[in-house]
Amino acid sequence: MTPALPQRVAGCPLCEDAGGRLVYEARQFRVICAAEVGFPAFYRLVWREHVREFSELSRDDRAICMEAVTAIEQSLRDVLAPTKINLATLGNVVPHLHWHVIARFDWDSHFPSPVWAGAQRERDPAREAEVAGKLPALEARMIEGLRSF
Predict the structure, then answer these.
(1) Does the N-terminal peptide bond of residue 112 adopt cis geometry, omega within 30 degrees of 0?
(2) What φ, ψ does residue 42 adopt, rounded to 5°?
(3) pTM
(4) Does residue 102 surpass a pLDDT of 50?
C-alpha cells in the first residue's frame, strides 16, 4: 500500500513552497534555513502535513516534532554558542504548523526583543558574516542529529 500524500492547502506558502533553503527533509517534516535579513541562523521546522495547531498531531508525532526541534536547538548551541535560542510557533500569518528555531546574540540588531520587533541597534554585518560562515558545519551537525527521524 502506498502511503497517503500529505494534505496540501491551496494558497498556503508552506504547502506550495519550501519556505527557505532546504537543509533536511524527513518523512514528517522539513528543516529550512529561512532568508531573514540580519539573522543568518534562523531555522524553521515545517510539518509536512498541513495542520494548524500542535495539538492536532498524534502523541507520537508531537514527540517526533519536539525531538527534532531539540536537535536543531542543540546543534545551534554546540556550533554557535549563542546568547539565547528563541523557539516560537505562532502561525498567525501562515496557519501551517512550523517552529522557528533562532540563534540570538546579544549583538544582534533586535536583541533582547523578538526578531519581529523593532531594531534596538544597527546591524553588524561582520558578525553576521562570521555566523553565516559557520552554517555548513552547523548544518552538518544538525543533519546528524535529525537522521533518526
Answers:
(1) yes
(2) -115, 110
(3) 0.92
(4) yes
- Tally Cβ neighbours within 10 Å of residue 68: 24
Chain Cα centroid distance, residue 101: 4
> For the chain, how are helix, strand and coil distributed in percent, rounded to 5?
35, 20, 50
Homologous superfamily of 13-146 = HIT-like (3.30.428.10)
Total Cβ atoms within 10 A of residue 12: 14
pLDDT for residue 3: 43
Nearest to 52 by CA among 92, 114, 96, 12: 96
% residues pLDDT > 70 (the chain): 96
* pLDDT score for 6: 59
CA dist 64 and 70 (Å) reads 10
Q: Could you give the CA distance from residue 17 to residue 34 in angstroms, rounded to a whole number?
A: 12
